[in-house]
Amino acid sequence: MAQESSGVGAVWGDIRAFGTGFKTTFKRLLKKPLTVQYPEQRMPMARRFRGLHKLLRYPDGQEKCIGCSLCAAACPAKAIRVVAAENTETERYSPGERYAKIYEINMIRCIFCGYCEEACPTGAIVLGQQYEIADYHRDDFIYTKERLLVPFAGKPADDRPHYRQGWTDQEKPAEPQTTGAL
Ligand code: SF4
Ligand code: SF4
After folding, report:
1. pLDDT digit string, tens, across residues 35-82
2. Strand partners for 5
3. 107 with 133: CB under 8 angstroms?
4. Whole-number Å distance between alpha carbons of 107 and 96
């Protein structure tokens, strides 16, 4: 008799558990889904997110980087390599005396700490919002100046560091997008 009543109790326990489970399911049924269909849809990143670096320009197109190597000195991962060269009257890249002839970041070493951005006296290097940097070959993780330098469209650009003063136009996230890259 005692066995029978414990069996009935177990069945009721199971039914209650089912009920609790379905209650949670039905509660969520009419709510907006939380899942995002990546990569067709992308969530906007937080403003302070530190992603792939960018080398910025002045509105007239000149490079902000003056090849001072302070970013390389500040980098705890020794991920940055800078080789500076002199600007000349016929070949001028930055407003200063020198420019970065070679500027490379090894993204395998980088820990995205943002120290380089903090150390830069001209605001040339910033960490942007791009996070899709997976690749197949080690060499492809060496980001050269050509890959890091923002394109110059021939018109003034809004190149403010994103986390201090807001998003750049390119970085400004919309609601989850249905197509296209970040
Ligand atoms: S984010 Fe940090 S680890 Fe990466 S390059 Fe800059 S200073 Fe070095
Ligand atoms: S990015 Fe900034 S800190 Fe680094 S070399 Fe250029 S000017 Fe100097």
Report:
1. 889 989 888 889 899 999 999 999 888 999 999 999 999 999 999 999
2. none
3. yes
4. 28
Residue 138 CA, ligand 2 centroid: distance in Å: 24
Domains of the chain, first to last:
53-148 (3.30.70.3270)
Q: Is 148 in the pocket of ligand 1 (CB under 6 A)?
A: no
Q: pTM for this structure?
A: 0.72
Determine if ligand 1 sits within 6 Å of the CB of residue 72: no
Q: Is the CB of 115 under 6 A from ligand 1?
A: yes
**DSSP β-ladder status, 125-127 and 80-86:** unpaired
If you write DSSP's letter for every residue of 21-80 in order, what string do you get? HHHHHHHHHTSPP----TTTS-PPPPTT---SEEE-B-TTS-BS-----HHHHH-TT--E
Residue count (the chain): 182
Nearest CA to ligand 1 atom 6: 116
CA of 13 to the centre of ligand 2 (A): 66
C-alpha 64 to ligand 1 mean position (Å): 18
